[in-house]
């Protein structure tokens, strides 16, 4: 049994946490979780319809971005955001939505970044399958 879904909107990247030090010398870690990221992860979680896929899983993903008027690479969105960072946000949203128990269950990922068709809305198509 596989799960599939689509999320409309520009995929948002999830960066790394930022370490810091307070004036008193104590250390802290500030997660990179802005409002856009939180909203995106909620949309991804809401796109999960069906039962949790148990055990090892394969994730197939197609991120679609709006093509700007000018770009260095006209055939592919070979710039920001980094594909691994948009994947991180997607996997966290899929985990929250119950597609799988934990993103540690992902044993294989097939992903690509493409330009959305002219006039089409950007977004992400995803599929989660048992391994």
Folded structure, characterized:
This protein has about 130 residues and is α+β, with helices and mostly antiparallel strands. The protein has a single domain (about 5-130), classed as 60s Ribosomal Protein L30, Chain: A. About 20% of the residues lie in helices and about 30% in strands. The chain has two helices and six strands. It has helices at about 35-45, 85-95, and strands at about 5-10, 20, 25-30, 55-65, 105-115, 125-130. The strands form two sheets. A four-stranded mixed beta sheet has the order 1-6-4-5, with helices on one face. β2 and β3 (about 25-30) form a beta hairpin. α1 packs across α2 (about 85-95). It is globular and about 50 Å long.
Give the SSE layout.
Elements: E1 3-8, E2 18-21, E3 27-30, H1 35-46, E4 57-65, H2 83-97, E5 106-115, E6 123-130
Parallel strand pairs: 4-5
Antiparallel strand pairs: 1-6, 2-3, 4-6
For the largest beta-sheet, the strand count, sense and barrel status come to: 4 strands, mixed
Helix-residue proportion: 10-25%
In what order do the strands lie side by side in the largest sheet? Answer: 1-6-4-5
What is the helix tally?
Answer: 2
Categorize the overall geometry: globular
How many strands? 6
Structural domain tally: 1
Radius of gyration: 16 Å
What would the CATH topology be? 60s Ribosomal Protein L30, Chain: A
Query: DSSP strand (E) fraction?
Result: 25-35%
Known CATH architecture? 2-Layer Sandwich
H/E series: EEEHEHEE
What is the CATH superfamily?
A: Holliday junction resolvase RusA
């Amino acid at each position: 049994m596989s799960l599939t879904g689509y999320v409309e909107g520009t995929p948002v990247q999830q960066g790394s946490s930022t370490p810091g030090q307070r004036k008193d010398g104590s250390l802290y870690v500030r997660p990179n979780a802005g409002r856009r990221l939180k909203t995106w992860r909620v949309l991804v979680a809401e796109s999960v319809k069906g039962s949790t896929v148990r055990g090892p899983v394969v994730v197939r993903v197609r991120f679609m971005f709006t093509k700007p008027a000018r770009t260095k690479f006209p055939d592919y969105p070979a710039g920001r955001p980094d594909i691994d960072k948009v994947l991180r946000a997607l996997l966290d949203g899929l985990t929250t939505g119950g597609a799988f128990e934990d993103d540690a269950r992902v044993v294989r990922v097939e992903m690509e970044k493409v330009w959305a068709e002219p006039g089409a809305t950007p977004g992400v198509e995803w599929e989660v399958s048992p391994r």
